[in-house]
């Protein structure tokens, strides 16, 4: 009995045998001990619970999303560097095939679902309510629940690294490879449950922000007065609402195939693996637009702030964002032109894909015209924006090349594709979110990030990016295919691969600069006292940084676009500032531990499903249901902030009142 247990723990449960993983296991264990020690020593447990784990404040939830996503960027980045080391020279024996398969899978999943998505949600949370003059999102409790579902889902996915083994069937896990027969291990189950749990959180966030935008705008703010970032959030969240249910269902069917021996995606008993591939891309293609649309919004804000001009072509920008969101649902089959759907189907999807280039091009011209004759300041957010434009244009054009169905028979699954999607994901999404992070950082924390170190990071990222990925276009044309861990000497791929690996390490250095930049800026903290760090145009800059819990002491009255800029112009012309209505008590939601606890029970149930341990599944699911019941019957969920307290807080934050 005891021997059986030992056998199970050492052979199946813990991942053993690999020195790299052993090292990480020790590092993880030490970090956990260190965190527990620090929290206990400084008596911070209560603070952690009351201020953070139970918070429903959109700003704090946003900060937690951003911290989590930067940690995930680190992990995904280490995965990327390991792969680039293996590929630097022919026939290296650094990562063996199984291990390489696991690493490209976890890298892809983590970068898209656990890095890009939470970084995006972090920015939504922090910025959107402030920009539309709201005191929180429409459903603050649901918002906290979304975050913790994401968090525990990501934890479930990440533990597979040390427990049970990582998934290894690619970031979209096509059957039959991901079926029980060909992937009997638990890695694939960690994939299903980790993504499923966090995906439900993402769906809820999408619904929450659509409701927030439609119902919570400041008095007088018409939809067509909203800042462009708010429009991009709307476009992205509408896309989430229609795309994420497809993911949930698809993963559930895959689960049924594996768990109950159903045959949705097997050729025998009437199923079809192509159905999975269609379904997963019906979510997967919109997903990449979900993450790029907000970046377009960020660039629009940054460009008009730093060129000190109104955004050029507001209406066409809105139209472009919303039409991309719709069109993104009609292009999915361009991911498998080679799978034999026939010429007519391929032609349809080739054309829809090409059409997307039109609204995208419109936006690029709008940004250029906004900059034209502007008085541009080259602060870090603006640098990221300027670097993004050529990078995204090249990435987009290689995308159009890929959309030519017959040509794709050559490009498909080659390094040409790898270079293309990294160019739009790094040059578009990552650069975009960095621009946003640098731009809104002072609003978030009340101090700016050190510009000098930021510029070093910027140049290392940019040069590293081109050095890493430009050679991969050529390698792709030379025939190098993706998802291979080694190649022969006589292929002639060696020189370009070395260059590419050097580029990857330059980006690694860039990341170190960013960590240094944050540490340095905290150490030599220069408080930003005006609340308006960049001479901004939209409402978030009209309140102190960091904003008080209730954001706006009085809900702003809006008429027209760029309300804060207009107000500053009026004052500069010597006109009276708009009269202030009297303060009123503010209605706020109360903190709650339920989102954290309920999501933890989902983690327990998910872990039970992974190992098929009914003794764990049942209490896990029961915990979820009990949490729902408790919440349904609790009525003490809100409170009022009194006028005196608002006056005190405002006096403290604004100096005098
Ligand atoms: C920071 C620099 C990065 C480097 C050096 C890098 C490198 C790589 C490498 C070497 C592969 C595997 C190629 C193969 O063997 O098939 C890969 C795959 C992938 N990467 Fe990255 N990557 C980076 C950033 C990103 C980012 C930011 C994202 C997404 C936001 C991303 C998403 C993906 C995806 C989805 C895959 C496909 C995984 C699969 O084949 O299932 N990568 N990357
Ligand atoms: Cu696509």
TrEMBL record:
Pfam families: COX1. The chain crosses the membrane at residues 20-42, 63-83, 103-128, 140-163, 190-216, 228-256, 276-299, 311-333, 345-369, 381-405, 417-441, 453-475, 495-519, 593-611, 617-634. Gene3D superfamilies: Cytochrome c oxidase-like, subunit I domain. CDD domains: Ubiquinol_Oxidase_I. Signal peptide: none annotated. Keywords: Copper, Electron transport, Heme, Iron, Membrane, Metal-binding, Respiratory chain, Transmembrane, Transmembrane helix, Transport. InterPro entries: Cyt_c_oxase-like_su1_dom, Cyt_c_oxase-like_su1_sf, Cyt_C_Oxase_1. Residues 43-559 form the Cytochrome oxidase subunit I profile domain. Belongs to the heme-copper respiratory oxidase family. PANTHER family: CYTOCHROME BO(3) UBIQUINOL OXIDASE SUBUNIT 1 (PTHR10422:SF35), CYTOCHROME C OXIDASE SUBUNIT 1 (PTHR10422). This is Cbb3-type cytochrome c oxidase subunit I. It comes from Paenibacillus thermoaerophilus. The lineage of its organism: Bacteria, Bacillati, Bacillota, Bacilli, Bacillales.
